[in-house]
Amino acid sequence: MFWALVPVALVAAVLGFLLVPESRDPAVPALDLRGLATSIALLGALVHTVIEAPERGWGSGNTLIGFAIALVLTVAFVAVERTAEHPMLDVRLFTDRRFSAASGAVTVAFFALSGFIFLITQYFQVVRELGPLSTGARILPVALSIVPALQRQRRAARDGAAHTGGCRCGRPRMSVTRWCRCIRMAGPCCRRDG
Questions:
Q1: What pTM did the predictor assign?
Q2: Are 121 and 170 found together in one domain?
């Protein structure tokens, strides 16, 4: 499939070069190289530490040093961004409690969703011995449940949160119940993709 799309990509690139006019925003500020370098070092140290920690041990010296380096680089990143003329991330935004709370909520939600998808995939493929196709079919309701949430978010941004009906906790519970029923429907014909 990849090789079939190569000619299409080449034609699109040539046509784009020939037909799309050059445009550039003259007011774009210079790239924050110090913030960029600090953030790359910070994320590199943190990701490396988290990846290596299960093998080395979460309480080992290497792991604790890795987390300490990531913490020092976080402080350095904040200091660099506070003094930058055009910061990559304006850390002063986090002084607004509403922004901080919303950012924290989104971060927790993404961690929870990523962890759930990782673990449920392992459950289906290792414990239930399903193949990738059957696993994907069982995770599909999760992906489809995200679409109404995005539409609700757009409505909240347009009309204000007060007009969207609040949390409505019954709907997520109903969706989880339906999804659990889909999991149980794995009959003998669905045990393996093959």
A1: 0.57
A2: yes
